[in-house]
Structures are given as C-alpha cells and as structure tokens.
Write a structure and sequence with these properties.
The protein is α+β, with helices and mostly antiparallel strands and about 110 residues long. It has one domain: Ribosomal protein L17 (50s Ribosomal Protein L17, Chain: A, Alpha-Beta Complex), CATH 3.90.1030.10. About 55% of the residues lie in helices and about 20% in strands. The protein has a 3-stranded antiparallel β-sheet. Helix 1 crosses helix 2, helix 2 runs antiparallel to helix 3 and helix 2 crosses helix 4.
Length: about 110
Amino acid sequence: MALQRKLGLPTDQRLAMIRNLVTSFLKYGKIETTITRAKETSKMAEKMITLAKRGDLHARRQVLSFVYEEKVVNDLFEKVAPKYADRNGGYTRILKLGPRRGDAAEVVILELV
C-alpha cells in the first residue's frame, strides 16, 4: 500500500477502520465521514474498483483479502466495475458538508460518481 495518513491510530486499528469504511462505501455507494478519513477511503476504494475492472480470479482474491463481505465483492465485480469500464479513474466524489457540531471536524459525503 502507498503512504497513508496516520489518523491518530495504531497501524492495525487504522487498517481495520479503513477496511470497514471501504466495505461500507462499496456496499451503500455513499458514506458520511470526516475529510481525512474520506480521502484515505477514496484512495483504497478506487484501487478496489480498478482491480474489479480487471475481472480475473487473482483480482477477485485480492479484493476479497481487503473487503470484509463477500456479497459486496460480488456486487463490485458484477454491477460497479462494468459501470466504470470506460473510465480511467476518478470513481469517487467528496462533497463538503461543514463542521461537525461536537468537535468541529470537517464532515464530508463520499460517493460514487
């Protein structure tokens, strides 16, 4: 994996959080989170979609090793990847919502284009 933001967490917790965010993002197509988490999630989700566009068995196993739910992987390969077959990246969009009430963290919506 490429250089990642630390997000104030130990490595194992950070990777688990990003895997959960990517799984939820691919499952629902849209999530609401902070801007730094959204940027990391977007980076990994785009890699998963690019792998799914390849469509071979090795790519499926690579995605299965990162995404927690097998149903999400099947949907990714059967529905999402063909949708972006002619697109060379840029599968996600980040829309800013403003500061969160409790701690004033910048909240965004991460969605598929």
